UniProtKB/TrEMBL annotation:
GO molecular function, one term: monoatomic cation transmembrane transporter activity
A Pfam family assignment: Cation_efflux
Cation efflux protein transmembrane domain location: 10-216
Keyword annotations: Membrane, Transmembrane, Transmembrane helix, Transport
Membrane-related topology note: Multi-pass membrane protein
Protein's recorded name: Cation diffusion facilitator family transporter
GO cellular component annotations of the record: membrane
Major subcellular site: membrane
Chain segments annotated as transmembrane: 39-55, 75-99, 111-132, 157-180, 192-208
Length: 305
């Protein structure tokens, strides 16, 4: 989680400075693409603030109102971030692009635009490299896409996607702006804004899908389930592991429910001792599993005549 904070803070600082310079350059050059890029950076700045707020809220200890803690606050705010990228970032950029394609305006001096875009590439690129480096530490041997899909920490891949989209959007604007001035085609400025908007919409849909999945509840991996089944089945009181139910309450907190059939000749005390042994072993093996609920189950034998 500390790595996520580092990525978010670096992205927040970069986007805040870049948003101010983009809006200034866009106002002087009358460029829709630059204004769209300014909106993009401003939305990203708000997103990082929301992620930091969500991280802080998720750290609140459990209380009577939320007995399992506030961990899912992070998933909620991650989903809000994806909606903001879609509505504010993508929607406004597409609107600006369409307006400037239909009614193109002559652009002013592009010099400051190029300066701002070049500096933005440096800042956004640096932020992206930091986010990629931090995410790379946690992905192990997984491919980048599989690691993103399996990740339970939305703050890490949200920043990665935002910064990646920002860098790609900057290059798109630079290319369109160059050809717009080189061949005197002011419509390309609107096209650049439109392309940036479509890019943001695409990114937001991916992030919304992943954030929604986490918010609805994702369970542990099959490998972890097999290990838990093995640990449970090794206890002498256990007859059979009937079912394993799990859900991530936060990137660092898993709730586990085991439905277990115990040996028929055991009394209540022996079953309770077995439950405590199993719970202790599971917690020792898996640091993220804090809540372990074990439900005894009776296997009924049916005889057919």
């Amino acid at each position: 989680m500390a790595s996520s904070n580092k990525s978010i803070y670096s992205a927040l600082a970069a986007n805040l400075l870049i948003a101010i310079t983009k809006f200034t350059a866009g106002a002087f050059s009358n460029s829709a693409a630059m204004l769209s890029e300014g909106i993009h950076s401003l939305v990203d700045t708000v997103n990082q603030i929301l992620l930091l707020f969500g991280l802080r809220r998720s750290k609140k200890p459990a209380d009577a109102l939320r007995p399992f803690g506030y961990g899912r606050e992070l998933y909620f705010y991650s989903f809000i971030v994806s909606i903001l990228i879609f509505g504010l970032g993508g929607g406004i950029s597409i609107y600006q692009g369409i307006i400037h394609v239909i009614t193109p305006q002559e652009l002013g001096n592009p010099t400051w635009n190029y300066v701002v875009l070049a500096l933005s590439v440096v800042f956004e690129g640096t932020s992206f490299l930091i986010a990629a480096k931090e995410f790379n530490k946690t992905r192990g041997n997984e491919s980048w896409w599989n690691a993103i899909v399996k990740s339970k920490d939305p703050a890490s891949f949200l920043v990665l996607f935002e910064d990646g989209a920002a860098v790609l959007g900057l290059f798109t604007v630079m290319i369109c702006m160059f050809f717009s001035h080189r061949y005197h085609i002011p419509q390309l400025d609107g096209v650049a804004s439109l392309l940036v908007g479509l890019l943001l919409v695409g990114v937001s849909l991916i992030l919304a899908r992943e954030s929604r999945s986490l918010l609805m509840g994702e369970g542990i991996s099959d490998v972890s389930k097999q290990k838990i089944t093995q640990i449970t089945a090794e206890d002498p009181t256990v007859l059979k592991v009937m079912r394993i139910i799990s859900t991530y309450q936060s990137p660092e907190d898993v709730m586990l429910i085991l439905i277990v059939a115990f040996q028929e000749d055991l009394d209540t005390q022996e079953i309770n001792e077995g439950i405590e042994r199993i719970r202790t072993k599971i917690r020792q093996e898996f640091d993220l599993i804090h809540f372990v609920i074990i439900q005894p189950e009776v296997i009924t034998h049916k005889f057919h005549y």
